[in-house]
Amino acid sequence: MIYFSPIVLFLILISPAIGSFIALFADRYLRGEDIITKRSACRSCAAPLPMTALIPLISYLWQRGQCRNCGTAIPILLPLSEVSALGLTILAVMSTDTNAELILTCFVLWCLLALFICDAQWFRLPDVLTFLLLILALSLALISPNLHIFDALIGAIAGSLSFWLIRTGYYILRKREGLGLGDVKLMAGIGATVGWENIAFVTLLAALAGLIWMILQNKQQTAALQGKAALPFGCFLCFAAVIVWMFP
Questions:
Q1: Are residues 25 and 91 in the same domain?
Q2: Residue 119 lies in a domain
Q3: Residue 173 included in any domain
Q4: Cβ(225)–Cβ(74) below 8 Å
Q5: Is residue 157, in this structure, part of any structural domain at all?
Q6: Is 38 in the same domain as 80?
Q7: Please, what's the largest Cα pairwise distance for the chain?
Q8: What pLDDT is recorded for position 62?
Q9: Which stretches in the chain have pLDDT values below 70?
């Protein structure tokens, strides 16, 4: 664990803003909208948001979760993303020993959060994020005392190859896709993050979490179990990766 330092304070302070940007990215990128220069506005009435409405964590509470102009509810995903980014950053602080390791760990966790939200919202895992996760994970393995770069590379290959085989086998048997190609790419980054030894644990935990989620979705349960409802499995893979990685 890193004791108090300016880097720690800085990362904790900016993490809610990172979470806000992640939610914005997930909302705009897959719509094909500008991420950087386009001014934030209400999705319902298109009223531009003032600076006071853009303060992470505080603005959602201050506005009581709704647009001041039209009263439309602000998506709960926004504050959840901000809180999640803060929580993940604190986890990174508690589990790392150097500033360099801390920074890369934060970026890996933030990337997993972005992938989680994209899959939850759009059932999509953008290539730019899965590739970024792989690069960040391999970079972290170069400096981390917990995972050798060789193990990370083997993990990336084993993770993507195993899911590609599952995807191909399912298609041969059922004549339709049961696992998205995005999940295959995601497992390359996750395998590089947790190492090849933990791929089975991540997969098992993700499957268990997905099953619990389906059971809790009473109206969709029957269709989901029959294979007729889409399941954002990438969400559960990201969740499982964080649990296995942060709580070995």
A1: yes
A2: no
A3: yes
A4: no
A5: yes
A6: yes
A7: 55
A8: 85
A9: 1-3, 218-229
